[in-house]
Target: Phosphate transport system permease protein
Amino acid sequence: MFSGLTRSAAIAVLVLLGGVVVSLIVGSRLAFQTFGLSFLTREVWNPVTDQYGALAPIYGTLVTSLIAMVIAVPVGLGIAIFLTELCPYRLRRPIGIAIELLAGIPSIIYGIWGLFVFAPFLQQYVQPALITVFGPIPVLNMVFAGPPYGIGIFTAGIILGVMVLPFVSSISRDVFETVPPVLKEAAYGIGCTTREVVTNVVIPHSRTAIVGGVMLGLGRALGETMAVTFVIGNAHKISASILSPGTTISASIANEFTEAVGDIYTSSLIALGLILFVITFIVLAIARLLLMRINNRASA
Model:
């Protein structure tokens, strides 16, 4: 009976996943029949003329997630290293709990805070400074081109970075604590500094779990909806400047699904959901391959 129940649970997960995939494919069929694969490369999104393209939401999803991971990964690893190697014992638990509480804050709270507090701060102080500093530098002057809107892809990426941070730091800290003390003591015994112990013992011993934590955070960043919807500007356009408003796949679906009138409009939104599913699947597959290569290299 126990074997049958566990097998049924595993099969039920596969059936549910298959049902989601089938429903997305069926729902998005009209959009792909109408626009073909050009749906993936079109920037236009006009409900009045029933012309739709997914390029702008795809671009916004990837760029905001990239900004989030650039912020969350080094900061999260730094927090984990500090808590396990440098922080006084009486402060480790309070700081660790405070970091983990960030994961429990609802995403809509992040969005409200980002819209009414963080975005005005960026608009008044940070973005003008970035525009001034990078203005004379080729290429970067396009990435940080004005005017300072406050909201935009850059703001959404930072908010996502804050939301992803507790996942990366908590998993990394838990893994760092599982490193056998004898390995670190041996490294200290031969004269290694704390930095050398971390880079040559702790991180190599934990790299598999670190990659898993980073990919878990990336999956959260790719699918986040409400917080991004508040601060990204919800503009279906692609701009070289990350300070400009944009949109993501999840934000577009959340904003427009209840207002979708017409089969093509609804099908295009479902097609966005299918694209997000495929992107997430590809990311998880790459993560799995990386973990397999790391494990094979470690065993060799």
About this structure: The chain has a mean pLDDT of 90. The two ends are 40 Å apart (CA to CA). The chain has one domain: 54-260+273-299.
